[in-house]
User: What shape does this take?
Amino acid sequence: MMNSKFNPHRLLKILLIASIISTFIHYTDNYLFIEQYPQPAWITAPAVYQTWLILTAIGITGYWLYKYQKYWLAYAFLFIYSLTGITSPGHYLYGKFSQFSAKMHLLIWTDGLTGLAILGFIFWSAIILKNWWRKTSPTESEFTHKS
Assistant: This one.
């Protein structure tokens, strides 16, 4: 039987998985084809994969914090993680639109959109859902969440 109750934890998990997959593909492409991406000279191949690893760990930590109702800390971690994708269109500051292949454009904008989705989730959760405001009932444990 399908559970009709909306679960923001599940939505966050879906958004985070989509973003991790998107950024993994883009950052891997950037790492492998570093010379083809217009970007500042200080961005190196090792910096690309190290940045992805660190930011992805921050995003997963943000999910965990959200799941266990540490909302404000989760929002901070998820905001930092959202930069993984939101900053991808920054490539365009260092090259003409025509210098990017169709694949590069697709990867850059997929990252940007998933980063915006994570950012949107933060604002939606904080401003609309106000989960941080809701009190947990005495029978509800932070370890009862299964998503």
Summary: The two ends are 17 Å apart (CA to CA). Residues 102-129 form the longest helix (28 residues). Residues 64 and 134 are 18 Å apart (CA to CA). Residues 135-147 have pLDDT under 50 and may be disordered.
